Structure formats: C-alpha cells, structure tokens
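Protein in question passed on here:
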Amino acid sequence: MATEESKRRVEAMVPRFQLDRVLNQDEAGRRVTLYGQIDAQPALLILERAPFPESSEYLSALPTNLRSLTNLSNNDIYAWFLGSGGPVFESDEEGKYADFKISLICPCNEKHIKKHSKQGFRYVTETPEIYRDKVRPLMQVSREEGHLNWVYNIIEGRKEVEDVIYRTPLGKAGDEGFLLLPNLHWDRKTIEALHLLGIVERRDIWSLRDLKKKHLPWLRHMKSKLIDATIETYPQIEADQLKLFCHYQPTYYHFHIHVVHVMLEANSTQSMGKAVGMDTIIEQLESMKGDEETGMDSISLSYTVGEASDLWINVFEPLKNHRASPPQ
C-alpha cells in the first residue's frame, strides 16, 4: 500500500513532465499519449478526459462557466460550437484551444429527447413486408413533420454554403445532383477523425431502401466523385484511407453518405447493425436478379433500435409481443 510520502513524491512528478512529442490521440480527443522526460528520464504521460460528474450543481453551472465559445455553424434548430471550460490558451491556427465540442438543439421536441436519452437497444430484422407495411409509413410521418428543413437549407444553398467542399451545379444535374461538406461533429482539424457527408439533391430517395439496380451508374459515379473531392481538399489523405457507408436506420430520411477516415474511432455509428458500406450496397444491387426496378426494398435488413424509438414502440415491440402470445 502506498504511503503518504510515496503519493506526494509521484504526484510531484507530473508537473515536471517535459513534452517531446505526441505519440497518439483518439479521434474524439478524449485520450492522448505524450512522450517526454521527467528529470532527464524518458516518460510516457497518458491523459484521458474524466467522465462528466452527475452533480446537478456542477452541470447547471457548466454552460455559464465556459471560458470561450465559438460557433462552428447553425442551421434551423441546430447549432454547433467549440468551447473551453478551463484556462484559454491562444492557438496559432484557430485562435483558442477548445475542451468541448458542443451541440445545441433549440427548440427540441419529444423525438429528440427520446433519441438522446439513455435507453436499451434491440437487434431486429426488418423484412420487406415489415418495411412496406410498418416502417415506410413511419418514415412518411417523420418527413412530413418538418425534420428535414435543415437538410433542404443546405441543398438549396441557404445555409453552410461556405462549408461545401464539392457540389454538382445546383439544380442542373437533375436526379444525379449531390454535394459534400463536413459533418458538424468533426472539429475540422483532426485529419484522422475526418467525417464528411455526401447529401443528394433528389428527394425521392429516403434511405438505402429506395436504391434500385437502375441507380448503379449514379452510385458508382457519386462514390468516385466523393473520394476525389475529399483527397483533393485534404491531400494528406489517400483513397484507401477512406470509408464510405450509409446508416440504416438513418437519423433522418433523406439519402446521404458518410465519408470517414479509416482511423476514425469505430463507435456505435459504424458498428454492425447501423453502418452499411457503400461498396456492399453496390455489390448487393449488382448481384440481384430482376429488372432495373429491383432494389434494396426486396431484402431483409437487420439492425439495432433504441427501446425509446418509434420503430421499437410502434413496430418491433408489438410484433415481438404478437409472436410471443399463445394462440387463442
């Protein structure tokens, strides 16, 4: 057991650490490994952000105690910021170093609250019949509730115009128009955490379920353009350092493609049951038998759903309970 003297001795070592170089940093910036020296002895210092305390007193004071706050962008009810909760240091590149990436939704609604609340998850299988009869109608309701206004603002050039990396001429590419811009959860600096979004102009493709064999030339062309635009904008990246995928179920029902660095931390949004590789979608469509109208709505898809989501409450939980009920 450590004595008080030994505790004080090792505690005094950390402030004497002299940085030589950064060895590693995770994509979210929560963990960094530093190499340097303490009293001329080689040393590694591994720093990891501690979890937020659950204290209401601390959390209620946190927003008002931020030392700096920089808005990255805002669109409809959404806004994104970088903020600092500790001492503010000047940076040669961005002005100030930030401790936090902050997202704001105001006004939020019940769906936002459910999505971001702690909840259990289930792994479900959506058959073509369940999609047609149960899930598609829910998608329709969601689209009609105005949740896509922020997407339309981007497509129509009303918001985030300065962030667009590449786009086909607005309104001139017909059904093949699309654009590419940074995901607002990316800090725009950490290349190994790169996360971009390719958003299509057309509004009749809500998700990968609407993709058909007739879309194959467009999908191949779009994939090529997204990769070329990314490596042209960020020349330190090579094509084989990029992953392209779609979410199913997606967060919002307007077809979009995620473009990320292969080193991006594989969190739940890239896990099985959420992310479907673009190459996999293309190969799936290529292998399907049938005419040009044959598509992704004709197969079963398995994925995770939150227990607070409309999909679980209104579709899969009732189906589960019905199957489990004994015949009358």
Observations:
- The mean pLDDT is 87.
- Residues 216-233 form the longest helix (18 residues).
- DSSP finds eight helices and 16 strands in the chain.
